[in-house]
Amino acid sequence: MLVVEIEKKLGQFSVNALFAGETGATVLFGPSGAGKTTVINMIAGLLKPDRGRIVLDGEVVFDDAARIDLAVWRRRIGYVFQEGRLFPHLSVQHNLDYGRWMGGHTADPAAFAHAVALLDIGHLLERRPGKLSGGERQRVAVGRALLMRPRLLLLDEPLASLDEARKADIMPYLERLRDEAKVPMIYVSHDAAEVKRIASRVVRLDGGKVVATGGVELLSA
Amino acid sequence: MIELSPQEWTAVALSLRIAAVATLVALPFGVAIAYVLARKSFWGKSLLDAVVHLPLVLPPVVTGYLLLITFGRKAPVGAFLADHFGIVFSFRWTGAALACGIMAFPLMVRAIRLSIEAIDRHLEDAAATLGANRIWLFLTVTLPLALPGIIAGMMLAFARALGEFGATITFVSNIPGETQTISAAIYTLTQVPGGDAAALSLVIVAIIISLAALVASEWFARRASARLHGS
Description:
The complex is a heterodimer of chains A (221) and B (231). Helix content of chain A is 32%, strand content 28%. By secondary structure, chain A is of the alpha/beta class. Chain A has a six-stranded mixed β-sheet, with helices on both faces. Chain A has a five-stranded antiparallel β-sheet with strand order 2-1-4-5-6, with helices on one face. In chain A, α3 (109-119) runs antiparallel to α4. Chain B has 231 residues and is mostly helical. Chain B has one domain (6-117, 149-228): MetI-like (MetI-like fold, Orthogonal Bundle). Helix content of chain B is 79%, strand content 0%. Chain B contains ten helices and no strands. Chain A binds chain B through residues 44-46, 71-79, 81, 83, 85, 87-89, 98-99, 102-103, 127-131, 144-145, 148, and chain B through 120, 122-123, 125-133, 136-137, 140-141, 144-145, 147, 227-231.
C-alpha cells in the first residue's frame, strides 16, 4: 500500500499529487509535461518534494513535517527507467545481480530463474548491454529492478523508446509481471492503448495536478 | 647498439622507479580531487582548481624551490615529517618522486576530471535505486566508468614524471644513484667533454620508454572502453 501526498515547485511549474496505490498496476496517465516522471522520481527519492508525505507499507519514507527523508538506496523501490539505464560495464547477468549484491542478500537461484524465465532473457546473460536490442534492454531493466526484491516497482514509460512491434512483444511480459510477481507497480504512460492493457487503476495527471482517479474507464473520458 | 655504463643504467632504473612511485602515490589523491572538482560545488572551489593547476603554469624551478623551503630537512614540514615519521625528502629519491608527483598532478587531475564529468549521472541514480550507498556507488559505477580517463591520467602523469627536470634538480639536486634521473644524467653528460655518445644512448632509451608507455596506455584504454561499449 502506497500513499502519496506531495507538492513540488519547479520554476513556473508545480506538481501537486495526491493518490494511493495498491496491489496490481496503478497507472499515472497524462500528456507529456503533466509531471508524471517528477512524481515517481519523488517516490523513488531521486527528487525531494517541497511538502507532503510518502508512506509505503506503513513506513514513512518521506515527511517534511517530521523531517523524514529516507535515502534513495534505503527505500527498496525498484525503478525501470524509460531508457533502461543498464550498467554498460557489466554483463546482463551482473546487471541482474546488482541489486542483490547491494542489498547484501545471498543468491536465490529460484527467484533468479523465475525472473529470467518470466522475461525470457536467459539467452542474454553473458552479453553486455551495448549488444542488446531496445526490447531486450528493457526486459533486462525490468528483471534488474525485480531482482532487488523491491517493495514497489516504478516503471517510467518503459515502452516509449520502442517501436509498435516491440511494444506488442513486451506487453505480455509486463502483464505477467503484474499478475505473477505480486509487487505493486506504479506505471507511467501517455499511451491509452498501453494503459488499457496494464492498468488496475488509473490516476490521471494534467498540468501537475491529479484531475481524476478511477478505473480504465477514465481513458475514454 | 645502446651501450650504457652502470651509472647510466642506474639513472634509467631510478627514473622508472621515481615515475612509477610518483604516479601510483598521486593516483588516489588525483581521483579524489578530480571527483570533488567534477561533482561538488563549494566555497573556494576555483581556488582549489587554481592551486592544483599551479605546477602546470609555474616555472618548474619555482616549484622546486617552493618544495625545498617546505619539505627541506630544516624546513617546517620537512622537519616535522622527519622527526615524527622518519620521512625524509631532501636529496633522496623520495624527494624526486614528490617533485615529479606534484609536477604531474595537474595533468592527472584534468584527465580524470573530464572522464568523471562525462559519466551519465542517470546510471548513478539507477545504482542508488538498486540499493547502492555512496561508497558502493562510487566503487561499482563511477570508478569503472571513469577508468579510461584514469588510465589516460596515469599515462600523462607517468610521462610527465619521467621528463621532469627543473623541479627535481632544484629540490633534490643531481646525485648519481640517488636523485639522478635520465633527464638529469643527459644534462650532466652534455656538460662534460666527450659525453655526447652516452647522452645519445640515454636519449634513445628515453624515447623507447616513452613510446612503450604510450602503447601500453593506448592498449589499456582501448580495452577499458571496449568493456564499456559492449564487446
